[in-house]
Design a protein that fits this description.
Elements (H helix, E strand, L loop, with lengths): L1 E2 L3 E6 L2 E6 L3 H4 L4 E3 L1 H9 L6 H11 L4 H17 L3 E2 L1
Antiparallel strand pairs: 1-5, 2-3, 3-4
Helix pairs in contact: 3-4
Amino acid sequence: MVINKEFVLREIAGDYILVPVGDTALHFNGLITVNEVGAFLWEKLQKETTREQLIQNVLDEYEVEEEIVAKDVDDFLNRLSEAEIIQE
């Protein structure tokens, strides 16, 4: 999967926000706020990766059960896909 390069991650007052830039800023209404794990995943998405690699990255970084990670990664990817921020 590949991210749309017209979104950037910014940390503002301790919050992580995906901000549209360029032409995308003209037609994308709003911002997307992500938590610390979402910001971690965003950084991993800077290079082409797979769902399975993302799950493994989170498991390597955080102490959490694989089932929970898989659901959370799927939710995150679905949210980005619906907003056309990533493409598979």
